[in-house]
Amino acid sequence: MLAKQKLYEVIFEADSRGGKIFDISLLLIILASIILVMLESVPAISKEYRHVLNVLEWVITGIFTVEYSLRVLIVVKPQKYIFSFYGIIDLLAVLPTYLSLFVVGSHSLMVIRAIRLLRVFRILKLNRYTLAGRNLARALRNSREKIFVFLFSVINMVLIVGTLMYLIEGPENGFKSIPTGIYWAIVTMTTVGYGDISPQTATGQFLASMVMIVGYAIIAVPTGIVTSEMIRTSRSNNTQVCPECLYDQHDDDAVYCKKCGHKIN
Amino acid sequence: MLAKQKLYEVIFEADSRGGKIFDISLLLIILASIILVMLESVPAISKEYRHVLNVLEWVITGIFTVEYSLRVLIVVKPQKYIFSFYGIIDLLAVLPTYLSLFVVGSHSLMVIRAIRLLRVFRILKLNRYTLAGRNLARALRNSREKIFVFLFSVINMVLIVGTLMYLIEGPENGFKSIPTGIYWAIVTMTTVGYGDISPQTATGQFLASMVMIVGYAIIAVPTGIVTSEMIRTSRSNNTQVCPECLYDQHDDDAVYCKKCGHKIN
Amino acid sequence: MLAKQKLYEVIFEADSRGGKIFDISLLLIILASIILVMLESVPAISKEYRHVLNVLEWVITGIFTVEYSLRVLIVVKPQKYIFSFYGIIDLLAVLPTYLSLFVVGSHSLMVIRAIRLLRVFRILKLNRYTLAGRNLARALRNSREKIFVFLFSVINMVLIVGTLMYLIEGPENGFKSIPTGIYWAIVTMTTVGYGDISPQTATGQFLASMVMIVGYAIIAVPTGIVTSEMIRTSRSNNTQVCPECLYDQHDDDAVYCKKCGHKIN
Amino acid sequence: MLAKQKLYEVIFEADSRGGKIFDISLLLIILASIILVMLESVPAISKEYRHVLNVLEWVITGIFTVEYSLRVLIVVKPQKYIFSFYGIIDLLAVLPTYLSLFVVGSHSLMVIRAIRLLRVFRILKLNRYTLAGRNLARALRNSREKIFVFLFSVINMVLIVGTLMYLIEGPENGFKSIPTGIYWAIVTMTTVGYGDISPQTATGQFLASMVMIVGYAIIAVPTGIVTSEMIRTSRSNNTQVCPECLYDQHDDDAVYCKKCGHKIN
């Protein structure tokens, strides 16, 4: 019973020395396994070291399988773990290798293990990063409607511009179909600009210029949305109220009220 | 008479169950019709399924025609609807297909139906999105002058840089004329960078480098304009109205109207 | 004497009806002359309409010459006008055509006339645009040091990265010399990305990836500088102090103090 | 003894006339040496002027060697200087030329001298630029966690998207391996968009469109982070120090220290 609890601490928590070592080793193995997938995809390397890479992949998958089984066995409520975010990711990290026995190429999906790197935040000073992440998420969530309205306008613009360019330039200039035109419009509006398709006619270049200037200018809109939301979030993060003077806009690290010097909380 | 009112509720409003079903069906048909236009423009698909697509297009156009007629017949003041924003868009959504009987290719303009997707905001919680949209629009309207000054400077810069590059690089390096030079300047300044035209001489590359750094840095200007305006707007989200002069853009911490000095709320 | 004063009003001021007509005509002629330069540079058009364009160019230059002479003759202190910003631009607008009698191709410099379009702000509600322009300029001026520090870091980074890429990729992959490498670094860092030169080796692509992520992230720095400066500028624009409660952060359009309702001068 | 102190003032300080002249000369020599490295790398120039450039390089390296030796000899605590940031840079500025006697091509590393240009801030009004630099650095340091979380998400996204594109497009469309796919994902997400690799299949172009829109939108996140941090930093430009606990980052409207509750100023 005690051994099980000890194991639980090592595997699920990062406070004890053993837990820390376990977490760091796990991260290193995850990193190794991601590099492995990449190397395997490079033809020159894959040809030469096929066997070594293959063995390593199975070793790592074995470790992950054991780890996953342990987690399921040790945890008090296995069902809750299995269907939690981390539980699903842990399972998905194991499956691709087994799947590759049946489906060729599917083992590249192992790259999904990258998400397991999220565990890195457990080793770092957890709270500060969780707070940072939560603040980011809150700012994005709060500006949900504005971002939706913005994206809707962009998609509408892209649909119409893409079709117009298809009509103006036509298949002979690389705009083979309306979807291609829309693809070009997105490439241009987001200022990516591959150049694999680009307008050749004067009219097309003029319309493209308009699209670019618009795309260049409207980047200001999401930026403005997120920034103003972040400023508001970072300001109203702290809900403490000074018991003495009722001032309520304290910084996160405030211990005393900056207005009257009274202790807060 | 009652039937007419019921129909009015279904077609024009989104509160009742019938109205909601009507609006969602309409959105799905609009989406289907946009996908239809796209598919028709892909040569491989268009060749194979010409007949099916053609029939579908006429069916959808039929539905839209009926819908438009109903709207005109049911509404109390038809003229007001016909010349309203939505009225014009609804008409434009129908015309291209009929036009295609006379002008080849014009049915691609059906893509204008994308604007009808705006109705999606009627089904979603309307108020929050309208507010978000109105705030965005207000921020952009308020920074009108600054954006105009900014765009004016950019256009001036682009005109002069484009001409200089035409003189430096010349037609032998792809800068065939001054308009081409200006097109290149816009492509570069907005950081799109297709690469279909790019400077070859050392002088040209040096000038291009300057343009890029300037283009990269001045994106900060519209962003700053819109962001600072949005922060101001979000601050004055206050909905209080001065009982004396009816001014309605008060700061959150306002106690007296800044326009007439009357006490608010 | 009276005629001279009347002429002065028409030419130099935009308040009277005559002045407005004069300014608008001038703007249209400037626009026409810019379009003229562009058309002349397009080989197909230039070949066909050489004579018409040539005549038009001389007519417009004639008009500008007369206008410039009138300005010099009418103004009270000719020297002050001649060496003012507008005076120099007005002269430069005339010179290229005369110069083209001696130097081939120099008449393209006529494009400098674009700067004359600045006069458009005289016709528009002058004050609001001047204020907008001045606020923009002030925000940029105030963040001078930060922008300098930022640009210095960017140039340093670009110099070092450009040289490294030259050493890594070498002339065989298009990085012909260190200046070329630096040109590539600027093209990449500013996210323009022509693709005329791009890394081919794995090491080069890895370094390039780093540069891109850095370039993508540090755009946040000038944006942050300008935005925070603009917010500060727009806030502290008004230096009025309420005589009653000494509150000093009034909006630009405030007539009464929003805190105590007292009139602010 | 006095001579040594005088020399110290000239070399290490920029207040006296001698010190200023020394610093400016040094800057010019550094600039000359950077231009030298660039010219040497251009084949056409290098061939013609090989001897001149070679001699100049050794002259400049000689000057720098003398300068470095003087600095070491004159300074009171040589060890502290040698291992300081500037000491290491000064040494690195000299080494490449000597190294080039043994390793071919290594003299291009001379470009590291660019970092020595940092001395320019010593000549300019030092304080304002140091302050600007420190504020920038502080804003970036304060938003460390948020930027880390952001970069982590971006890297994760890039890994997964890169692999997916490798599976979708495959080597026949230029996605030769997973690292290449990741390289493409970075090029696209950062809106650089070389176009040396670009998706050819419909599925690939659809996924690419998603990536572009995401990349275009999330630039708002680092911008928001840095901007909101800068606004906060510029607000707390307050230089007051708490007499009790020496905390020095008070808000402008602070009356009591928020850390210990002691009255400030």
From TrEMBL, chains A, B, C, D:
Signal peptide positions (record): none
Ranges for domain Ion transport: 20-229
Main localization of the protein described in the UniProt heading: membrane
GO terms, molecular function: voltage-gated potassium channel activity
Origin superkingdom: Bacteria
Keyword set includes Transport: yes
Keyword hit for Protein transport: no
InterPro entries xref list: Ion_trans_dom, VG_K_chnl, Volt_channel_dom_sf
GO biological process, one term: action potential
Ranges annotated as spanning the membrane: 21-39, 51-70, 82-104, 110-126, 147-168, 206-226
Record-level GO cellular component terms: voltage-gated potassium channel complex
Keywords tagged on the record: Ion channel, Ion transport, Membrane, Potassium, Potassium channel, Potassium transport, Transmembrane, Transmembrane helix, Transport, Voltage-gated channel
Membrane topology: Multi-pass membrane protein
Localization: Membrane
PANTHER family membership: POTASSIUM VOLTAGE-GATED CHANNEL PROTEIN SHAB, VOLTAGE-GATED POTASSIUM CHANNEL
Protein name: Ion transporter
Lineage of the species this protein comes from: Bacteria, Pseudomonadati, Bacteroidota, Bacteroidia, Marinilabiliales
